[in-house]
Amino acid sequence: MIRALDSFATRLATKAWLLALPVLALLGMPPARAESGWQQLNMTRGVTEISRKIYDLHMTIFWVCVAIAAVVFGAMIWSIVNYRRSKGAVADVTLVHNTKVEVIWTAVPVVILVAMAVPAARTLVEIEDTSRTELTIKVTGFQWGWQYDYLDDGVAFFSRLDRKSDAARELLSGIDPSTVEHYLLNVDNPLVVPVGTKVRLLITGADVIHSWWVPAFGVKKDAIPGFVNEAWFRVDTDKPGLYRGQCAELCGRDHGFMPIVVDVRSKADFDAWLKEQAAQQKQAAVPAAATG
Ligand SMILES: [Cu+2]
Q1: How many A from CA of 123 to the centre of ligand 1?
Q2: CA 268, CA 231: separation in Å to the nearest integer?
Q3: What is the pLDDT of residues 258-283, one digit of tens each?
Q4: Closest by alpha carbon to 155, among 284, 260, 276, 277?
Q5: What is the bridge-based pairing of β-strands 145-150 and 155-159?
Q6: Distance between Cα 139 and ligand 1 center (Å)
Q7: pTM
Q8: Interval between CA 201 and ligand 1 midpoint (Å)
Q9: Is 208 exposed, middle or buried (0-12, 13-18, 19+ CB in 10 A)?
Q10: Is 94 helix (H, G, I), strand (E, B) or coil?
Q11: Contact yes or no for 192/265 (Cβ under 8 A)
């Protein structure tokens, strides 16, 4: 029985890497299949330079971790299989308080950590660099939605869960959520931004702490009452479209019902939209000012 277990353990140790191969192959798939299949388990590569840098950093660190795990577990399994008592192995006592070994196993992790910290710090500095922005939008999180203020243009609006999702989510609504398009991920008024423009967000909270998170932009920033946090993104010029996100800070009862939708348009489309919004809002303000 023991001999059978022995040979099973030996076979398992020599074949374990064969089992790991398909998983590793899937994780390292080319970016062309980024948003489908197994790749959905991974981060998105996104549509901004920063999001890709974050993704590349994540993959680099991931492979470093895989290599470390392979070396550590490989040595462990190999030792357990080959140097077990049933094979007549005797414990080695020379490794205890061996200065040379202790220096090596302290220095090697330090070198690895410093090597990982350099690219991580470089990307972090870029994420925080909000200089030379071309458009500033104030984002205010509230229970349960987002307010967007285009500070230089006098345009402001609320963005809430779209009516269809809102109706379907009601208890005993009788509406099948699977029939609602983008259920709980759609809003009435999306945030509209232009492509190829460095957009700075000033993020704050009106009541409790929320968090503005759009994975495709590599942006996730807390919206804290009394604080103004900064974030920025620049969407690739060839990637206009709708991008979705959610509140990422547990903020209360309807935390799961305050999605984010960003409508990224060409610069010309965006300018036209902004002008139209500014004109509409100015007109809407006139009667109020006249009667007030
Ligand atoms: Cu929230």
Answers
A1: 27
A2: 24
A3: 999 999 999 999 999 999 999 999 88
A4: 277
A5: antiparallel
A6: 12
A7: 0.79
A8: 17
A9: middle
A10: coil
A11: yes
